[in-house]
Every structure is written in C-alpha cells, then in structure tokens.
Amino acid sequence: MNQNLKDLQKKINYTFKDENKLFRALTHRSYINEHRGENLPSNETYEFLGDSILEFWISDKLFNQFPQFNEGDLTNLRSLIVCTQNLSLVASNIELGNFIMLSKGEERHGGRVNQSILADTFEAVLGSIYLDNGITPAFSFLENTLSQSISELASKQIYKDSKSLFQEIAQSKKGITPKYQTISESGPDHQKNFEVAVYVGEDLIATGSGNSKQKAEEDASIKATKILSNLV
Known about the structure:
Layout: H1 2-12, H2 19-25, H3 29-34, H4 44-65, H5 71-82, H6 84-93, H7 104-108, H8 115-133, H9 135-155, H10 162-174, E1 179-186, E2 193-200, E3 203-210, H11 213-228
Antiparallel strand pairs: 1-2, 2-3
C-alpha cells in the first residue's frame, strides 16, 4: 500500500507530511467491515470536511471568475461542478478508483467505478490534504483537478443541476413536476445511507442512494433523466 500512496501523491501533485491521513481518506467503510479487528477509521468524516472546503472554494472561484453571472446561474453552475457525476469524472481522471480501500464484495460489484464512491473519496482526499498542511495546498489540489471542468461546464451556457434538468424533461414529456420520496434510511447518524424514489405522477421512474437525502435525490434524478430521455 505504501507504494500505492506514493503513486497517488505523484498524480495529485502533493506530498503528505503524514501518509496516514491519505490512507484514511482512501478507506471506504466497506473495507472497515471486513477488517473489524484492525480498528480502522473510515474516510467519512474526512469527506464531510472536504465537502465543506469544496463548497467554499467553488463559490469563491465562480464569484470571481464569472462576475457577469446572476445568482441563479452561479448556483446552478456550482451544483453542476460539485455534483456526484462530475466529481466522479474528476476522480477518474486521476485514477482515484485504483487506490480506494474496498471490501472484496464492494470491489466485485464495481466499487472502483461507482460514481458515489469516487466522488466521496475525492472529497475525503481534499479533507486529508487540508488536515495535513492547511488550506493553501487544499485549494491548489482543487485548482489542478477542477479548473478544466469549470471551463467546460461554463462554456455550455446551460447551468442546470440534475434535478432541474429532469424536471424540465418530465414537464416536457409528461406535463408533470416530479416528486421525490425517501424510501429508507439506514446506518448510524454518522454513517447514514438514504434511498430515494422519484415519481412522475403515480409512476416510479427511478431510485437513488447516497449518504444524504440531497445526494440520493441527485442520484435518482440522473438515472431518471436517462430513462425518460431513452438513453437506457
């Protein structure tokens, strides 16, 4: 694993003072379940911290980079950049999936390419960089990994998050505004998992999951958009 950590540090252009922080950032909770005797912490609190850092950085970045945008455009563009789908693409660009510590079962079921796991681990790595050496290298990491996608998404001039896009499609095709319903919540407070269903009228279109209701709704809306757009 030590060599893997070295390889990842080269990819992200940051060398840790304490590699244990990076190791924790890569430790998915499924791995913990298979190694209970080792008393390892998962990356979920690091992800929580990284999510907050990312939210501030992208808000400041967009505010300064696009002074001509109104509040609605800034909000929707920010949502597109930090959504699970985009963060998973960014994580894939640095081959982050190759380094995540997963259970054998999670790995068999495609955990290394799972969008939610990739996005969450990206945020956890961000949190670990901040804890290792402060805000400056954390912001540099975001600048290096996200600048290209910011430019690409901004150039499309369509600043809609996944839920807004699905709502437009549902209203266009069915004349109905979609509704989201939480199906289940599981796990302790610090490791919650939500499952959400999205309906158009009485029809269940798709379900999604995530460690917050917002992420679960986002996941459901992405799947539902593909279904109504005849992409799957």
